[in-house]
Fold:
Amino acid sequence: MTPEQLVTGHTVYSCVMGSRAFGLATEDSDTDIRGIYLAPTPLFWRFEKPPAHVEGPADEQFSWELERFCELALRANPNALECLHSPLVQYADATGQELLALRGSFLSRQAHETFTRYALGQRKKLDADVRQHGAPRWKHAMHLVRLLMSCRDLLRTGVLTIDVGAEREWLLAVKRGEVAWPEVESAMANLAAESAEAALRSPLPTEPDRARIADFLYRTRRDSALKADA
Structure:
């Protein structure tokens, strides 16, 4: 079975991500597709295991194998968590629907550390652009501010909302380079401070519900094996 066949024949969940999911789409925005496929259990009984992720087969399409996705989401990986909270769900079979019902089980205060660590990595790239070219890549700056907003609001409310809502116009102004870099820097610093404060009294649990996710994954793998033997 080819990687492409895993995606086309065994996807359990897919959604639109990127600017369209964030409420930041413009006329030239791509349509980024993210998905999760369930590799049939018998494939894991071979020496050569199925891939943990697949790029394609369509342009701007990326999918994770279910177990790999769960591992990332349990670590509060921003890309994985946001995938499950996209407002633009394309497809979800029974397994995908159960995964959606479990999405709150992945959330924890660990999001503060992982979102912040990811943001710091992106900030270093922006600072390098400023040193080399006198300005950041404004699109990347916009998405970094958006991520910091999402992190702060998640820690404050316990709910991951990825549509930027009322912040759309200001963020698009950042993307167009119409907001001075010092103002953007100040916004990033304020958001980081607000996130740190929110983490101290967040309604989120300290750890995700690993046992519940492990049970879901075990049952899903077992059912796949039984279906293969039928």
Notes: The CA atoms of residues 3 and 51 lie 7 Å apart. The radius of gyration is 19 Å. Strands lie at 11-17, 32-37, 53-55, 61-65, 89-92. The chain has a mean pLDDT of 95.
